[in-house]
Amino acid sequence: MQFLILSDLHANWPALKAVIDDTAGQYEAIVCCGDVVGYNPQPGRVLEWVRACCNAVIRGNHDKVVAGIDDIEWFNEVAQTAARWTMDVLSEDQLAYLRSLQQGPASIDGFQIWHGSPVDEDEYLTAPGEAARCFSEMHGPLGFFGHTHLQGGFFAKHGYVGILPQVRFSEREYVLELEPDVTYMVNPGSVGQPRDRDPRAAYVLFDSSRKLVTFRRVPYSVAETVADIQAAGLPDMLGLRLLAGF
Ligand code: ZN
After folding, report:
1. Strand (E) or helix (H) holding 226
2. Nearest CA to 79 among 91, 62, 92, 67?
């Protein structure tokens, strides 16, 4: 079975649209590792697409704050401004959808998904040392996660924990063949706000029968989202970080 794995869409419709166009006909199910909204100015459009199209969705920290089930004071000023703006523009029905999203980890078809780590949905897994503590908490050899907005992830092989390769700036994709006896935590990267210095939208295609994970990047009109950020009166920093990919 072919899965499209998405995370951290963050209300960036032009980025999500580029991913949808780039993957047409290439998957049978869509899985979302959280953070549908926050930061960017098209939360309603992105949320409705997720609600209509994704087969499995778990909540992210921005979804929780906008839904009113976590404290906004944990966010920095820019994230708070965007979260308050998002609460104002979403309908009561859309906010109720965010409130209904389940906490990870969730088990899908032979793999797990979570937002931060398998033990704490709000924990950032950025380094092998942090990931190493979590491999024993996984159910099965494969999990997909987000939260850091960094495409790649980690693997554990006979006690050694390493970093998975990333797509090069000059390339479109990187294909990882999953090996037996290796455990993987795969981060598809962020659709709507990449932070690995590559502004292209990030996602993963997972072929569960052939055991292939394809990391992809697709360019989109960042300028369109930046213009929408300005039109919405959201902080300029949100556009600048999209342009630079941080
Ligand atoms: Zn996020």
Report:
1. helix 222-232
2. 62
Task: In whole angstroms, give the CA distance from residue 99 to residue 101.
Answer: 6
Cα 111 to ligand 1 centroid, rounded to whole Å = 21
If you measure from the C-alpha of residue 180 to the centroid of ligand 1, how many angstroms do you get, rounded to a whole number? 31
pLDDT in tens, 163-212: 999 999 999 999 999 999 999 999 999 999 999 999 999 999 999 999 99
The order of strands in the sheet holding 106-107 is: 106-107, 112-113, 142-144, 182-187, 152-157, 160-163
Q: What is the mean pLDDT of residues 30-48?
A: 98
CB 134 within 8 A of CB 165: no
What is the rounded average pLDDT for all residues in the chain?
A: 97
Confidence band of 45 (pLDDT split at 50, 70, 90): very high
Centroid of ligand 1 to alpha carbon of 196 (angstroms): 13
pLDDT tens-digit readout, 205-231: 999 999 999 999 999 999 999 999 999
Determine the distance separating the centroid of ligand 1 and the alpha carbon of 62, expressed in angstroms: 7
Task: Report cis status (omega within 30 of 0) of the bond before 128.
Answer: no
Distance 174 CA to ligand 1 centre (A): 23
Query: Rounded CA gap, 116 and 126, in Å?
Result: 10
Dist. CA 243 → ligand 1 center (Å): 17
